[in-house]
Write a structure and sequence with these properties.
- This protein starts with a strand and ends in a 16-residue tail after the last helix.
- Mean pLDDT is 83; it is low at 402-432.
- The chain contains 11 helices and 18 strands.
- It has 2 domains: 2-126, Rossmann fold; 161-416, PPM-type phosphatase domain (Phosphatase 2c, domain 1, 4-Layer Sandwich), CATH 3.60.40.10.
- The chain is an alpha+beta fold.
- The protein is rod-shaped and about 115 Å long.
- Strands 6-7-18-17-14-15 form a 6-stranded antiparallel beta sheet.
């Protein structure tokens, strides 16, 4: 505690009172001397006379408040001035309290005790702030590490789509995928079943984030174009080639796997299509996913699918295969509900009718250009702030010519055109 007064007698009286109360006191005969002492060691409490030769107590208070220190200094001004304007000037300068001369010992000790309580509370707040800052720094490090991991997970998830575009004869597949976060629960892809058949799939795993992304990675393995023995949509035939599994059976098999092997609480919706690249025949299953749409070359739009239950909700769920025929110039599109349930600034949902309108407006664009234009229009519709993952498979059909007809190929070439022959992998029995 520092007492500042040009009167030696006044300093001694105050020091004696405070020493008897158990306080350690140092003295300064002027404001200038007080500043020198503060540079060596800043006291918790300063009691200063207002009027002194040279620098006043008010000016001393202002200088103390300007010091770059961490701990607060409680400042008491001693004055014979009791006018409101003088008190206001002292408060503006940063004084915390006032004592009017002559000073009573009991009042002095009470004012100091009050100041110490405030300093103690201020110290506790500082300590809590320090702990919060330390906790925030730790959380920031954890957040940065998670952010790096999520960015890596995003790259890995995007790697599941090794190709976003491929031509099959004169037909073409284009994929669109935009997660709403670092990683998402949507998955789109394609794989050749054999030389004339192509599989397309669009999947939307429930929820968002890491758990959903891990599930999409696992599901991707069940539609692998590199490991047909693990692909639930193909089966080895007697000649060593591969035939398609009925889409309804594909959905049933995945439903069995999800409920009996994975045993999680996550489910997913799916649209899966098996396309004959020669005839344009489409076999398709819709398992809780938005209706696939065909945009005909003439401009009309037709919905496909039979609704169906999501995969992983009900054991023994049955699914239905539906059929359609694509003609040259027709476009098949499988989309996630992140597109059909997108809302604009007025809260109006796009839904199937709005998507059909987009398909009509953008129908003359090539497949890749169509996907980019669709994303641009969706972004413009809601300002680019997607609340859900957005994904689509766009398939443009042009009938294969004779040079692509596998019937004109040698049997060995037909057998190995899609996958190398290998032993079949046993699948789980399911109720069809």
């Amino acid at each position: 505690m520092l007492i500042v007064d040009d009167s030696r007698v006044q300093r001694r009286i105050l020091a004696a009172q405070l020493n008897r109360a158990g306080y350690q006191v140092i003295e300064a005969a002027s404001a200038e001397e007080a500043l020198e002492r503060c540079r060596t060691r800043m006291p918790e409490i300063i009691i200063s006379d207002w009027t002194m030769p040279g620098m006043s107590g008010l000016a001393l208070c202002q200088r103390i408040r300007e010091c770059p220190i961490d701990d607060y200094v409680y400042f008491i001004l001693l004055t014979s001035r009791a006018e409101a304007t003088e008190v206001a000037a002292g408060l503006d300068a940063g004084a915390d309290d006032f004592l009017t001369k002559p000073i009573a010992g009991d009042e002095l000790r009470a004012r100091i005790a009050s100041g110490r309580r405030l300093l103690r509370m201020q110290g506790e707040l500082q300590e809590k702030n320090r702990l919060l800052q330390d906790a925030f720094a730790t959380l920031q490090k954890v957040h940065d590490r998670i952010d790096r991991d999520l960015n890596e997970a995003r790259r890995l998830q995007q790697g599941l789509m090794r190709e976003r575009q491929r031509r099959f004869g004169r037909s073409e597949v284009n994929l669109v995928l935009r997660p709403c976060g670092h990683v998402g629960g949507d998955l789109v892809g394609f794989f050749p079943i054999n030389a004339r058949r192509l599989g397309l799939y669009a999947i939307d795993v429930s929820g968002h984030g890491i758990a959903s992304a891990l599930m999409t990675a696992r599901i991707a393995g069940y539609f692998s174009g590199n490991a047909p023995g693990l692909n639930v949509a193909v089966e080895l035939n007697e000649t060593g080639g591969y035939d398609p599994v009925q889409p309804a059976d594909v959905a049933a098999e995945l439903n069995h796997i999800l409920l009996h092997d994975m045993r999680g609480e996550i489910y997913f919706t799916m649209a899966y299509a098996d396309i004959d690249l020669i005839t344009g025949h489409v076999s398709l299953v819709q398992a809780g996913h938005p209706h696939p749409l065909i945009r005909r070359a003439c401009g009309t739009v037709e919905p496909l699918g039979a609704g169906g239950l999501p995969i992983g909700l009900i054991s023994g769920a049955e699914y239905q295969t539906v059929s359609a025929v694509l003609n040259p110039g027709d476009r098949l599109i499988l989309v996630s509900d992140g597109i059909t349930e997108l809302v604009d600034a007025d809260g109006i949902m796009l839904d199937d009718a709005g998507l059909a309108s987009f398909l009509t407006d953008l129908g003359d664009l090539e497949g890749g250009d169509f996907g980019e234009a669709l994303m641009e229009r969706l972004s413009r519709m809601n300002g680019g702030d997607f609340a859900d993952d957005v994904s689509a498979v766009v398939f443009d059909f042009e009938r294969m010519g004779p040079e692509m007809n596998p019937r004109l190929q040698a049997p060995d070439k037909l057998r190995t055109a899609a996958f190398p022959a290998q032993r079949p992998v046993a699948m789980h029995p399911v109720s069809r």
